[in-house]
Specification:
- The chain has about 130 residues and is an alpha+beta fold.
- The chain has a single domain, classed as Aspartate Aminotransferase, domain 1 (Alpha-Beta Complex), CATH 3.90.1150.30.
- About 30% of the residues lie in helices and about 25% in strands.
- It is built from four helices and six strands; from the N terminus they run H-E-E-E-E-H-E-E-H-H.
- It has a six-stranded antiparallel β-sheet with strand order 1-2-3-4-6-5.
- Pfam families: YjbR.
Length: about 130
């Protein structure tokens, strides 16, 4: 039995996330677990999720990413970021984009997450 769809394709925040994520080299979108995920081979971002320990309270406008290892500690201390259910155990963090996000920061977070999983050729294309 497939997961139910847990997002609105007309969501304007999703549209902005989608534009940023799919602008990265070789990036694709796939629906997984009822949510949009962004991949370059492996998944580097997911739209929507919940806080660890609060799986019954989804945050539909959350962006889940793999932070740059050098930034993880600072992001964990920023109150806007949270450890997501399921993915947090693998080093992922989430941020709720519902309240006027800084889209330059969102693009930087997606870029950093992409670099954690993308093949060297895709990172080279991004830098070139």
């Amino acid at each position: 039995m497939p997961h139910p769809i847990m997002f609105d394709d007309a969501d304007p925040i999703l549209a902005r996330v989608r534009a940023c994520a799919l602008a990265l080299p070789e990036a694709t979108e796939k629906i997984a677990h009822g949510r949009p995920t962004f991949r370059c081979g492996k998944m580097f971002a997911m739209y929507g999720g919940s806080r660890k320990g609060e799986t019954r309270s989804p945050i539909d406008t959350a962006l889940l990413i793999i932070p740059d290892p050098g930034e993880t500690q600072a992001l964990e201390q920023d109150a806007r970021f949270f450890v997501p259910a399921y993915m947090g155990a693998y080093g992922w963090l989430g941020i709720d984009l519902a309240d006027h996000p800084d889209w330059d920061e969102v693009a930087e977070l997606l870029d950093a997450s992409f670099r954690q999983i993308a093949p060297k050729r895709a990172v080279a294309a991004l830098d070139g």
